[in-house]
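Subject: Sanity check before I submit

Could someone independently write out the structure tokens for this chain? I want to compare against mine line by line before I put it in a report. The sequence has 594 residues.
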Amino acid sequence: MPDGATKVEAGTGYTWPGARMEFAAGEKDLSGFSSVSIVVSNMTARPLKVHASVKGRAGDKTVDGPGGSVELEALGKGEIFVRLEEMPWELDAPLELPGMNGFPKARGGGFSLEHVRSIHIFLARPREEADFAILGVTASPGAHKKLRSEAFFPFVDKYGQFTHDDWPGKIHDDAELAALGRREDELLAAHAKSPVSEADEFGGWKGGPQLAATGFFRTEKLDGKWWLVDPAGRLFWSHGVNAVNAGEPTGIGGREKFFASIPAKDDAAFGRFRSKTWKAAAHGFYADGAHVPYETFDFARANARRKDGGDFAARFVWRSLARMRSWGLNTIASWSDGELQRSHRVPYTILLKTSGAPRLEGSKGWWGMLPDPYRPEFEEILRKRAREAAAWMRDDPWCVGVFVDNELSWNDEERMAEVSEKYFSTVRRVLKEELPNHLYLGCRIAWGSDDVWRSAAEYCDVVSCNCYKRRPGRDWPEGADDKPMLVSEFHFGATDRGMFHPGLVAAATQPRRARMYRDFVLACLDDPRIVGAHWFQWRDQPLTGRADGENYSIGLVSIADVPYVELVGAVRKAAREMYQRRSRFPKQTEENKQ
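---
Independent answer below. Compare away.
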């Protein structure tokens, strides 16, 4: 073991066996820190999940504070990241702030960062003995600010930004917004070439092997590694991003006091961005219909108009395509602008839905009940939508493939083998009849039993999964076909640039977020099954939340369309080494290409 490391021998006689690190003074004030990082290594020849918990004391009672965990490969090393504070701001008294998954709060409860007693690093209910080592513990300083609740409203400025703080990249006036846009456009024009080494027109690896060119995307396993193959017959790894759109509305109805400046309804420049037809979300402030119909405003679109004037829509298309090429992104992923997809500049995926089909009785899940694949309406609806898509992209070589549905409610263990087999087989048959040139990319599995994964592997050309973890990791269950996999969603977020929620996987700072991105993509490249990874999403969600309350700081760009330079740098670095990292093929010469 390295010097300073602590070995932990965890048995099965305790519920949470591990090590407890106590402060010599009895307690420690950690209120000036934003996070704790604990580096651990697995000393056991099987995967291991290691947890950490920060603990305090209220009177004579031990109180649990924030915690975290990491999944380690056999004999692998990793980092447990514990967020000590949700965001840099704290209210001095509680406020009602509906419609947002994250927002500033007043401190309360038994646990206090001012009185931390210990850090517990442990396994949870292990069935076998296991050893792990603690290699180091570090705390990152924070910049906590207390805000006066009586002066909090309004807290959103005309650009959709938080009013009560400042940070690099915040927009302060229209002139600054326009100047940043001009400067970036100049940089994009000067650095128009993709950082992907030896890329062909599709973003595939022109310097690699020349395989059969079918005119469409396909899959092939080469030297033990799965690949996509582009229409020109070049190896292709899908480095993409979801939701490349000009904006996303936020609800203002019932929350008018949140906003410092919303254009009048009859404003000729910005009135078009208001809507009274936005449907109620399944979750969130508007779900109960109390404020429906309600008005929305799209700050991102308004900012685009301020920056680019009347031709902002065309400029959005140009700038997005230029950014993707310059940043090394070779796939426009799901929920993206149709003009981008039809540009024939960057390969794309499409997503079809079976919404409207009858639901499977007894099923349930976060996004609703499972569609019933036994009902004839299921196939009818899917076939109709496939034919609508075929009208414009059936013979398009730039389409990588087709997803159908997203994060379905695979939650009934008893009948999932039968239901999933019926679902995937029906979808495959319809797609191969209506869109025969394109890959079936699955349903973006977020959860599901082994039966679901086996059915997906049997019928999908590529099995997609939404993976909100620090590292990808999914083994095929016993009996499953060997198929390529695609990470169709992942992200990391941080609250150090004016946003309230870091998303589903948190980072302490923008530099750390960038490092997590690169580590994740490189781990995908090292996995012989994974043929691509798609970031979610292009732009930060609105500070005050989309329809379901998500207000995550997960964009490559901010609500004001300012790129996060640290993250973009990590995207470019990952793209630059993508094909060399993935493959050990020697560079071909003109002679051996014949």
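---
OP: Matches mine. For the report I'm noting this point. Residues 586-594 have pLDDT under 50 and may be disordered.
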